Amino acid sequence: FLFEGVILSLVVFLQNGGLLQCSKLNPSTPILKVFCDPERDTYPDYRLKRESLNYLFSLALTGQDRQTATFKILVFIYWLAHGTSYKTVSETFGIPLSNATSIVRDVADKLVKLSLKIVNKPSSGELALTVQGFGRLARHPVFEKAVGAIGGCHVRVKIPGVPQPQQRPGDQPLPEKALPTINFQGVCDHTGSFIDVFAGLPGSMTDVRILRHSPLYKCALYPPPGCFLLGDGGYPCLQTPVCIITPYSKSDQNPVHVQFNQHHAMALSSIERTFGIMKKRWHMIFLQPLELHPSFIPKVLAVCTVLHNICLRSGDLLEPVKIEDGSKVTEALKEWLASNETSGEVEKIYEHFP
Asked: Which residues are the signal sequence here (predicted)?
């Protein structure tokens, strides 16, 4: 066994897709004792309940050597949950530092591939449930043409080897904008499940520019004809190439427009809630500066979305944390439409909207 000095024998029994038990654990690695005891709560150590871990293993455990694969996934999930150094991970699991580093990188690559199964757009049959769901969220039938909500957040980074802004004794903590950030754009359905993600561009770029660089926009992948996405004031209101409906300006006091905004906000809350849940579960990723190479961060964020969707499917639910993001655009941007864009302003008010 690859980690013979750590685990004397790791035996995984699967029944109806669930992990039941593992045995003969080396007592010098208590973090694995928690996992192997079916009566113990795995959430404090892995930020995933046992049901979510079972679901993940049912998707990720392929091939002959399931013992090694299980161990590697646990190492990675622990690293993700605590945002800790590779040195701490190696000490916690009793493995060499080089192994800890390679395991994290290797598992991240493998779990990103699961996004093809887990983070995907609704099928034609699922679209009917999605539009009904947004109609219920908005409490108005006009929004039964919505098939997703788009939004974004900033992930702070501390690039290894690059000096950070210095503080003098007694200064206030550095604001988020003092640190470099990476943008993370996501689209979710009415349940809060991610259906499209795009990450890796600098945080200095606006939501509009991030959108225009994304495959969602460039390839007009979604939504289907006759449907639209919901976006906040940081996005343009568009018909093409991607139909996005945004609220009216805050300064617009037309009673019909104000009412529209109220229903729009109720439906748009799905993406806000989704990011809030992500930040609560993976708070060491989203709420602390990531000390990782920028090229690796998009993979980590992609894995977070995969695990988020797995948790939803497993009933592993959390209440969102509310985070004030001072860098977020909250009002419509006064930018010219690109040559390939068509304004969606005329789509905001339908004849059925009172």
From this structure: 1-22
pLDDT at 178: 65
Neighbours of 27 (CB within 10 A): 8
Sheet-wide strand order for 244-245: 194-202, 181-188, 146-156, 228-230, 244-245, 238-240, 342-343
**Number of folded domains in the chain?**
2
Range of the domain at 228: 121-159+175-347
Amino acid, single-letter form, for residue 270? S
Model pTM score: 0.85
Residue 183 β-bridge partners: 154
Is 165 part of any domain?
no
What DSSP assignment string belongs to 207-265? HHHHHHHSHHHHTT-SSPTT-EEE--TTS--EEESS-EE-PPPTT---HHHHHHHHHHH
In single-letter form, the type of residue at position 237 comes to C
CA distance 156 to 285: 9
- CA nearest 286: which of 134, 194, 155? 155
- Higher-pLDDT residue of 98 and 336 is 98
pLDDT for 13: 40
Q: How many residues does the chain have?
A: 354
- At residue 216, φ and ψ (nearest 5 deg) are -55, -40
What tens digit of pLDDT does each residue of 130-180 get? 999 999 999 999 899 999 999 999 999 887 665 555 555 555 555 555 678
**How far apart (Å, rounded) are the C-alpha atoms in residues 297 and 138?**
34
Count of helix runs (H) and strand runs (E) in the chain: 13, 9
* Residues 11, 67 contacting (CB under 8 angstroms): yes
- Residue 130 in any domain: the answer is yes
Task: Indicate whether 91 and 139 sit together in one domain.
Answer: no
Supply 144's token pair.
């039964």
